[in-house]
Amino acid sequence: MPQLKRKLNNQFIYFSAIVLAGIITLVVLTAVILPCLAFDLFPSYFRSDIHEGRIKIEYWEKWTGFEGEAMQKVIDKFNQSQSRIWVEKRPISRIEQRFLVSVAGKNPPDLAGLQAFMIPNFAEKGALKSLDELASEFNIKKEDYLSVFWDMGVYQNKLYALPTTPATLALHYNKRLFREAGLDPDKPPRTLDELDSMAEKLTRYNNKGKIKTIGFTPSYPGWWLWAWGFWFGGRLTDEKGRITMDDAGNVKSLVWVQNYARKYGLVRLQEFEGGFGRLLFASPQNPFLTEQVAMELQGVWMFNFIDKYNPKLEWGVAPFPAVEGLENVTLADCDDLVIPTDAPHPREAFEFISFVQQQENMELLCMEQRKFSPLKKVSEDFWIKHPHPYIKLFYELAESPNAKTQPMIPMFQQMREEMNSAFSEVWLLKKTPEQALERVQNRIHRAWESQKRVEEAKSKSQNSRLGKK
Amino acid sequence: MLYALIILMFLSLAAIVAAFILLKHSDKPQIKKLANTLFLCGEAYLLFHVLHLIISIIQYGVSDFSVLLTVGEIYVLVQSFAEYTKRSRLRRKLIIAHAVVIIGSIAFLFPLIWMVSTALKLPGQAMSYPPKLIEFPMRFENFKTCLNYQGFQFNLYARNTLYLCILSVLGTILSSSLVAYGFSRIKWRGRDFCFYLTLATMMIPFPVYMIPLFRLFRLYNWVGTFKPLWIPAFFSSAFHVFLMRQFFMNIPHDLSEAAFMDGAGDFRIYWSVILPLAKPVLLVVGLFQFLNTWNDFLGPLIYLSDQKRYTLSLGLQFFQSQHGGTDWNLLMAASTLVIIPIVILFLCTQKTFLRGMTMSGLRGG
Amino acid sequence: MIFKISHAEFCNIKKGLLFISPWIIGMALFVGYPIVASIYYSFTDFSVLLPPVGIGFQNYSDLLKDDLFWKSLNNTLLYAAISLPLGLGLSLFLALFLNQPIKFRDGFRAVYFLPSLVPLIPLAILWQWIFNSRFGILNGILNPLLQPLQASAPNWLEDPMWTKPALVLTRLWGVGASMIIFLAALQEVPKELYESAEIDGVTHWRKFFNITLPLISPAIYFNLIVGIIASLQFFAVPFVMLGRGPADSSYFFTMYIYDAAFKYLRMGYASAMAWLMFILTLVLTILASRVSSRFVHYETDNL
Question: B344 — contact with chain A (CB < 8 Å)?
Fold first, then answer.
């Protein structure tokens, strides 16, 4: 009798286990597998180029957070203002890689937001549609813009991109630390020598001899290590397009850099700077915000972080000083909109671009992102309502004839990596500036020469083909 | 604080002495167990205290009292350990193994503890100095907030990821076992050459075959769907074939011989003899493939364009922004949620595939 | 006469090919074209967006003169030489310990495996935190300990000498997967062998070397080969965590391949690099196989 009971028990458990397994499988099947499988088997049913009867424009943008929201406001405005086109923004990370792969696979979006430095590379390889015709049709002219931002979208005299949000760099300094060090907080340094001597006065050490506060160091924040040459009259390419990474100005800038490493002691600086990476930048522990760095080269966005993490900070901006004879030197950068070749709806995409370029929309976008506008015409309201207290300075720097940009050549990415590497070697006292620059000049020159050889081989094969005809 | 440490130290000494006494005066197994527990607790605390003393000696310098105390405690520790393990049935090696494993697990767990601790903080608290493990009050609502943050949709992405994982695990187990069988249980000319060819495909770095592969998938019209992420799994993966082959080659020849004698064809042998025996390996392969697919970032990055089809690992990117700063606490909260399902999966399956089936039961049978 | 195959052999080849047909079809559908294409690209200048232009061996000769190539190769080999033995040793060590009848053993196994479950993005950020020389917990522990010795904890991520050790540590943290494989292999070792050895009075070390190691040698071989391949292709963690690193100290080979392909749009150059890497991996793998063929024992060795 007990055996029978046990048998029944076992069978019951067995049975209920099967039923349970069956239920779980059914749930998994309907909730998970079927919907996704349906998408896989009938993709065209789910994809469409139409949204509520309008043409859908796929717009890839790297922005997230408040920057993404700013652009979304403009998009919403555009979508509401007409009923033929619907713009859909997709946040894409690693946009450079993603863009390349999709264009190479002939599967591009209609519109993409790239950073200016990516444009020459893509333009040269034919990945971008030239916008000259469409621009003239929609009455978008070079004269409407600050020249430095227009030029960033031009490659080999053809227009490939139009700006969305611009940026320039300036010296940010801590007014309270200035006062403490006996310096006039309304008289920031105007020459490099003043910068160096003020930095010395602002630097404080603790009782163990370690750095507590640093006046200035060229290695922080370390985002434009390749560009110091600009403030010394140096440049990376000359008018003829030759690579001049080892020109006198660049060498002088690295000498200046190395002096800092020597003056303050490399080990002490490393200990001090240790950990001041990107991780800390967007946090209350940002060293400029914790008043451990008195002066730094930063961009127009810095205000966002000050406002968010330490609004009580007393700070000011000024043009970053340069060598004798050069005034208002800055590095300008820009985010741009491009239309890839083989885009499904280039004309409609451009309609959106031209909408963004209109003054009031551009100002909406730039105001939300707390940046200035790349247009020459700016409304008074923009300046009045803008939350950034020093926004006009950044704008004036962009207007200056000494507003520099990265060389708009495809090889720039490689050059930038190499210049960063040269800075690192000079900073770590492993090489002299001449040696470091000579080496990167040789490397880039070699790469450039092999590029030339390829061009020759290409034209030779083309000629031979034409000759055969 | 100091008084607490001293009191605990005396308590632990008392525990050890009590353990000895209990061990001597009783034979009942429950009492023995109690003695063992007392002893272990006492020893553990003593060890901890000794380490603490050594660290403070290093930091604050030597003083007669601290050195005396440290030496005394070490002596007590070692002697009592030797004596007790001689008398009781506790094995020394086992205790040492325990100690090593526990200390090691703290080191291994630490980054994860940090991850969870950040998940429970406010954005500004993530990078405080000195770093604090717990900030009160603990923000459990972060877990709720991160589920639907700025484009990240946990449920949707989890569904997509689960879909990919189920299908690719299915495909991998079926196909890789078939192929591994062919590479291990049948002797045929050119077998080893083909196997090394399989291995060789693992040796090619991904950036170079990414673009031609993308072109291929574009040709098949699979880009933008999930297909590139699970269909290739049905055609075996070199890594899993390799793993399974190693285990298949360890199954004794006699078993398949016996089945062959009974008239079974190769496929029957594969299905009825080898597969059941290889359950542990199959589970390991399934687990690894699930893990790979769950955390795969590069594949979904390239092949999925519709935001509704994103996977979890791809979705985590929404928590990072370029110039706007990252919400570290939400990112860590989301990451914790992403890990939990695979942890559960591992805990459920590890008993089965690790307890495994030993060959001993099949020897001579 | 060389190709005279007996009927039995022919049947076996047929059977073998049938079983590995998924792999063959997979090769044809997904693997063949990319491999052949990348070999072809290595002899061209290919910017991905424009058609490739044949340039013969120029890529290869440029590579040999490229000092960044040698630097990245150096970095990779150094990293592999350190992390491979340490990783194998640690995972075997842990597997042995976790094979003992410890309380809560299953939980501990999960604990050691857990780190390899963390997805890449949060993992890289966690590491950046932990190794942060100012706020990180690692230096938070090391600094007070080193103080009396007048030393201070290293600048893990900014000192060129310490970036590779930091990366090795991150790799060691993820040995869970290879530990699992060793564990599974250890399960297969019959307990009677140990028992009979103990009866014979064999010492602990002899037991390890003469019983354990030979019986798990297939797993050792597996982890070794996979370890060689994985460490030579080390990419994801340093890519997200460090980039090139101070003085290019964390610039690994696959990172240069990635940069050349996607940043500098020189896919031909990248393909040439990839194939050199392939040859290197192949050579090392064959060497490892030759060496281990003397030590690896399978149950079916007479097959």
Answer: no
Contact B127 A64 (CB under 8 A): no
pTM of the entire structure? 0.85
Per-residue pLDDT, A422: 92
**Length of chain A (residues):** 469
- In contact, B139 and B307? CB cutoff 8 Å: no
- Give the nearest partner residue to B325 out of A93, A102, A282, using CB atoms: A282
The whole-angstrom distance between residue A442's C-alpha and the CA centroid of its chain comes to 27
Same domain, C26 and C130: no
CA distances from A415 to A240, A418, A438, C47, C263 (A): 17, 5, 13, 17, 11
- Nearest Cα of chain A lies from the Cα of C26 at a distance, in angstroms, of 20
ipTM: 0.83
**pLDDT band of B365, cuts 50, 70, 90:** very low
Say whether A457 and C53 touch across the interface (CB within 8 A).
yes
The answer to whether residue C100 sits within a structural domain is: yes
Please identify, in words, the CATH class of the domain defined by A50-167+333-404.
alpha beta
DSSP state of A319: P
pLDDT for the residue numbered B355: 60
What are residue A112's DSSP bridge partners?
A60, A338
Q: In angstroms, rounded to a whole number, what is the distance separating the alpha carbons of residues A416 and C136?
A: 30
CA–CA min distance C259, chain B (Å) = 9
Contacts of A279 in chain B (CB under 8 A): 127
Q: pLDDT tens for residues C61-92?
A: 889 988 899 999 999 999 999 999 999 999 99
pLDDT at A75: 95
The correct CATH number of B149-362 out of 1.25.40.10, 3.30.565.10, 1.10.3720.10, 1.10.260.40 is 1.10.3720.10
Residues C159 and C193 in one domain: yes
Query: Would you say A202 and A178 are in contact if contact means Cβ atoms under 8 Å apart?
Result: yes
Nearest to B163 among A36, A62, A309 (CB): A36
Q: Which residues of A touch C55 (CB under 8 A)?
A: 453-454, 457
- SS3 state of residue B14: helix
Answer whether C170 touches B (CB < 8 Å): no
The residue of chain C nearest to residue B181, with distances taken between CA atoms, is C19
Chain C contact for A151, CB < 8 A?
Answer: no
Report the distance separating Cα A118 and Cα A185, nearest Å.
39
**In this predicted structure, what is the pLDDT of residue C299?**
62
Strand segments, DSSP code E, in A108-221 are 111-115, 154-155, 158-159, 161-174, 204-205, 211-213
Residue holding tokens 């919907």? A35
Give the B window 187-246 contacts with A, CB below 8 Å.
Answer: 210-211, 214-215, 217-218, 221, 223-227
Residue A104 with chain B: CB contacts under 8 Å? 211, 214-215
Residue A42, SS3?
coil
Q: How many CB atoms lie within 10 A of CB B257?
A: 11
At residue A49, does pLDDT exceed 60?
yes
Beta strands in A137-249, from DSSP E residues, in sequence order: 154-155, 158-159, 161-174, 204-205, 211-213
User: Highest-confidence range of A38-47, C48-57, C81-90, by mean pLDDT?
Assistant: C81-90
- Same domain? C29 vs C137: no
Query: Is A292 within 8 Å of A215 (Cβ atoms)?
Result: no
Contact check, Cβ <8 Å, B223/A301: no
Three-state DSSP class for A162? strand
Q: Which CATH number goes with the domain that contains C287? A: 1.10.3720.10
Q: How far is CA C31 from CA A396, B179, B214, C39, C52, in A?
A: 56, 16, 12, 13, 20
Listed residue (C213, C208, C271) closest to C63, CA to CA = C271
B318 contact A CB<8A? yes
Residue C277 above 60 pLDDT? Answer: yes
